Automatic annotation (TrEMBL):
GO terms for molecular function: GTP binding; GTPase activity. Residues 255-382 form the VOC domain. NCBIfam families: lao, metmalonyl_epim. Keywords: Chaperone, GTP-binding, Hydrolase, Nucleotide-binding. Gene3D superfamilies: 2,3-Dihydroxybiphenyl 1,2-Dioxygenase, domain 1, P-loop containing nucleotide triphosphate hydrolases. Belongs to the methylmalonyl-CoA epimerase family. Belongs to the SIMIBI class G3E GTPase family. ArgK/MeaB subfamily. InterPro entries: AAA+_ATPase (IPR003593), Glyas_Bleomycin-R_OHBP_Dase (IPR029068), GTPase/Isobutyryl-CoA_mutase (IPR052040), GTPase_ArgK (IPR005129), MeMalonyl-CoA_epimerase (IPR017515), P-loop_NTPase (IPR027417), VOC_core (IPR037523). This is Methylmalonyl-CoA epimerase. It comes from the Bacteria.
Amino acid sequence: MRAGDVRALARAVSLVEDGAGARAEVLAACRAYAGGALRVGVTGPPGAGKSTLVDQMARWLRGQGQTVGVVAVDPSSPYTGGALLGDRIRMQGFEGDAGVFIRSMASRGAMGGVAKAAADVCSVMEAAGRGTILIETVGVGQDEVEVVGVADVTVLVLVPGMGDEVQSLKAGVMEVADVFVVNKSDAGGAERVEAEILAMQGLGVAREGWVPPVVRTVATSGEGVAELMMAVRRCAEWKKEHGLRARLGMSGGLRLDHLGVAVKSIAAARGFYEALGMSVTHEETVEHEKVRTAMLPLGESRVELLEPTEEESVIGRFLAKRGEGLHHIAVQVEGIDAMFERLTAQGVRLASDSVRVGAGGHRYFFVHPSSTGGVLLEIVGDAGEGGA
Ligand SMILES: Nc1nc2c(ncn2[C@@H]2O[C@H](COP(=O)(O)OP(=O)(O)O)[C@@H](O)[C@H]2O)c(=O)[nH]1
Ligand SMILES: [Mg+2]
């Protein structure tokens, strides 16, 4: 797949989507190479021209020599005539062009939610070296709004004469839009929608620094698509410069790495988890931390049981003071240095004075419980950042 084999990419995407046994392994392997693509979310009401626009954006990117991945979270998108048909489908006009890889997925029922499923497919496409990933989603339901969080830059497609339909869009979608598109601007009335958007921006949804531009397009002819892509790039660059993790808060950028549970005895505690159907895959004593750990995978995360080897240790003191229980939550992030800087800048109380390097080579730091609602939070870098 890394060498550009499209069939291998299709198989990997299927493995990740189907939730079968190899899923976690494939994902973990892909994550080591993920993070390099620009993910562009294209959202808006049904019929606004999202699919037509995505097709044009893909064409434009191909013209620039880029490879493209398309994730359509919309069963009605015309790439397939049926979202569940799978990976052999090609967007009209891209047959035979391995540079555009399209995957449609149903918007409901996926394991762990559609946003997570979309994020996972993005990770695989990224690992396969796709330069830009276009994610089409209908901006009407909560599921779909969450998909937007998987993207670095979000494009909201509106059309003239929408009137009440604008109101029917989730308020959340309006707020996350980085670029507004007035599509079907050949139909007349574009000025009015544009004026409505500008008026709305005046009403306090404007965010610091980046004012979402409004771009007019005619998706059927490709008019305005170059301008749109420029606006998307400017936004991506702006976010990068400002250290903004566009995917923050969504499964694309953050994920639960593990839960650390302090126990008096691993031998006594593991029985419950085993009865639950989990199993210990790895046990280890970390000498310098005076702790013995047992790892129990849980989806892509894991529970870590922590047993002190001495009373005078972090876990030993925790047990003496608070008793057995949740000791910390570990969250994996992309861009741990930027995260450290941002939290520091925001005055969050950290329990580490810098990003540390752990025994296995992984990088981490701790956030003090007084900033998190009472739980010690470990932030772990992702595998691609000099991790183990
Ligand atoms: N006149 C005009 N029709 C468009 C334009 N963009 C898309 N359409 C048409 O609008 C319909 C819906 O487009 P589609 O891309 O499927 O919308 P989606 O539901 O948002 O993905 C199709 O018949 C398109 O050909 C445009 O800019 N102008
Ligand atoms: Mg569509």
